[in-house]
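can u do me a favor
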C-alpha cells in the first residue's frame, strides 16, 4: 500500500489509520491537520511499514499514535507539532521500531509518551535517534517532561536526540522520566536543553 501526498483535514476521527495486519505500507508526504482523533494511527499488528515526511498537527489526540503490535516499522522525518495530547504515543506490544529525525514540538502534553503497560504488553526494543523533542507540555495537568516512559518497556535506546525546552523555564522538570519497571534503558549522546534533570528514574 502506498499513500503519498494526501491532505486530510477537519475529519471527525483519525486523519490516517493503518490497521489490520497491514504490511509493507508507505505513508509519505501527507498533511494531516485539525482532525478530531489521532493524526496518524498505525496499529492492529501492522508491521514492516514506513511513515515518513508527514505533518500531523492540531489533532484532537496524539499526532502519532502507535497502537497495538506495530512492529519493525520506520518513522522518519515527520513533523508532529501542536497536538492536543502527546506528540507521539506508543505502547501495547509495539516493538522493534525506529524513530529517526522527527520534529516533535509544542504539544499540549509530553513530546513522546510510552503508555503504562504490564510486562506482557510492553513496547520493547524501540530506538529513537536524531529527533527534536522541544517545548512540549503546555497542559497544567501533566508533569513538564519531554519524554515519559510508564510501565514495562524494555531495551529502549535514545541517542543523539535534542530534548527539553528552547528557553529557560521553571516547568522543565526532566528530559526523560523513566519508570522503575523499564529495564535496559539507554541514553547516549543526547542534547538536553533547559531541564532540571536529564534522565530521572522513578516509578511513574
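np, heres the sequence
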Amino acid at each position: 500500500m502506498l499513500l503519498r501526498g494526501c491532505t486530510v483535514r477537519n475529519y471527525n476521527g483519525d486523519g490516517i489509520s493503518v490497521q489490520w495486519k497491514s504490511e509493507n505500507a508507505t505513508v509519505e508526504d501527507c498533511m494531516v491537520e485539525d482532525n478530531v482523533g489521532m493524526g496518524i494511527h498505525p496499529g492492529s499488528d501492522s508491521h514492516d511499514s514506513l511513515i515518513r515526511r508527514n505533518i500531523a498537527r492540531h489533532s484532537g489526540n496524539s499526532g502519532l499514535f502507535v497502537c497495538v503490535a506495530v512492529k519493525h516499522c520506520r518513522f522518519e522525518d515527520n513533523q508532529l507539532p501542536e497536538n492536543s495530547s502527546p506528540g507521539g504515543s506508543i505502547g501495547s506490544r509495539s516493538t522493534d521500531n525506529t524513530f529517526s529525525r522527527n520534529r516533535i514540538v509544542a504539544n499540549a502534553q509530553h513530546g513522546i509518551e510510552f503508555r503504562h503497560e504490564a510486562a506482557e504488553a510492553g513496547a520493547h526494543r524501540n530506538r529513537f535517534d536524531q529527533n527534536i523533542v522541544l517545548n512540549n507540555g503546555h497542559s497544567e495537568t501533566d508533569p513538564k517532561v519531554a519524554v515519559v516512559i510508564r510501565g514495562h518497556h524494555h531495551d529502549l535506546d535514545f541517542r543523539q536526540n535534542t530534548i527539553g525546552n528552547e528557553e529557560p523555564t521553571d516547568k522543565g522538570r526532566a528530559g526523560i522520566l523513566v519508570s522503575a519497571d523499564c529495564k535496559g534503558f539507554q541514553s547516549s549522546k543526547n542534547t538536553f536543553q533547559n531541564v532540571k534533570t536529564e534522565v530521572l528514574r522513578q516509578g511513574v
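The radius of gyration is 15 Å. hope that helps!!
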